[in-house]
Write a structure and sequence with these properties.
Blueprint lengths: L1 H35 L4 E9 L5 E12 L3 E3 L1 H10 L3 H16 L7 E5 L10 H12 L6 E6 H6 L1 H13 L3 E7 L7 H5 L4 E4 L1 H4 L6 H16 L3 E4 L5 H9 L4 E3 L9 H9 L9
Parallel strand pairs: 2-4, 4-5, 5-6, 6-7, 7-8, 8-9
Antiparallel strand pairs: 1-2, 1-9, 2-3
Helix pairs in contact: 3-4, 4-6
The chain binds ligand C2E and magnesium ion (3 copies).
Length: 280
């Protein structure tokens, strides 16, 4: 009897796997179609100088809402595009759109764009990305690329070459989600980064627990010594912003300063802050 029940469980389990695979394939097809139909969009979230509250740049965040599937998070569809081998096609449309939007912003504002791990394993990535910004006409010195510790770990030699090629062209590179990956602090020495983004996990607990406050304090002081800029991610409350300022953190990003918004809303936001930016 127990054997039969066991077999039944296996059947249910493999049925779930089959369902999961079917869903992934549906998602893949829908995403491939969305790329072709130009339905994948990019939103922008402000990054501010914590001392002056001035906007210094925007992070581009991929957005996709399918007619049948509804809103799909980039943390779902970006890894899917990587696994199914079309991350380059996705990244190209996203970077093209983001760079195009950035052309209308004041020149001193930078555009920050997320790179996926698969892109950091492909030696052609730097050439490809520089060609896209070149075609759009965005000064590469206004571009910043966010990479994660995990992505750097995957193939450190190739990643390092890509990063130095990009930096040689004037692109800045930041280490995203810092503190959550499994890399060692030695990465900060061996790799040339320009900026470190402290993960939201520390920021959201900075008011509640002392440990997070000490960790942020240590990261800020380490970055100061290494001459790296620091951005705190996921600031949702004024109390967090105040504490981060007190700890000497230079930049911040989060719902407290602004949620990700589409290109048009971003222009409207900028036109309220800059006299010379005309709202579309
Ligand atoms: P990330 O690069 O660490 O981006 C920050 C995430 O935190 C974004 O989620 C953003 O909307 C969210 N966020 C910002 N401020 C706050 C806040 O105050 N509170 C909370 N709770 N969340 C906040 P999102 O847009 O869902 O993106 C998730 C992840 O997907 C990103 O994490 C990034 O790893 C990836 N991603 C998004 N767009 C792209 C892209 O164009 N290319 C690649 N390769 N990855 C992307
Ligand atoms: Mg990011
Ligand atoms: Mg992040
Ligand atoms: Mg993240």
């Amino acid at each position: 009897r127990s054997k039969r029940r066991g077999r039944g469980q296996i059947t249910v389990y493999s049925h779930e796997i089959a369902q999961e695979m079917k869903r992934a394939t549906q998602l893949e097809q829908a995403l491939r179609n969305a790329i072709i139909a130009d339905e994948v969009d990019v939103h922008f979230q402000p990054i501010v100088d914590l001392r002056s509250d001035a906007v210094v740049g925007f992070e581009a965040l991929a957005r996709w809402c399918d007619a049948d599937l509804g809103y799909v998070s980039p943390s779902v569809f970006v890894p899917l595009a990587e696994e199914r081998g079309f991350i380059d096609a996705l990244a190209e449309v996203l970077l093209r759109k983001a760079a195009q939007a950035a052309l209308s912003w004041p020149k001193e504002l930078f555009l920050s764009f997320n790179l996926s791990s698969a892109q950091l394993m492909d030696p052609a990535t730097s050439t490809r990305l520089l060609a896209i910004v070149g075609q759009v006409g965005l000064d590469p010195r206004r571009l910043e690329l966010e990479i994660t510790e995990t992505a750097v770990m995957a193939d450190a030699d190739v990643a390092q070459r890509i990063v130095s090629e990009l930096r040689a062209a004037g692109v800045r590179v930041s280490l995203d989600d810092f503190g959550t990956g499994q890399s060692s602090l030695g990465r900060l020495r061996d790799f040339s980064f320009d900026k470190v983004k402290i993960d939201r996990a520390f920021v959201s607990r900075i008011s509640a627990d002392r440990a997070s406050e000490h960790i942020v304090k240590a990261i800020v002081s380490m970055c100061e010594g290494l001459e790296l800029e620091v951005v705190a991610e996921g600031i949702e409350h004024s109390s967090e912003a105040l504490k981060l300022k007190a700890l000497g953190c230079g930049m911040g990003q989060g719902y407290f300063y602004g949620k990700p918004a589409d290109a048009v809303a971003t222009m409207r936001y900028l036109s309220q802050r800059y006299r010379d930016v005309a709202a579309r």
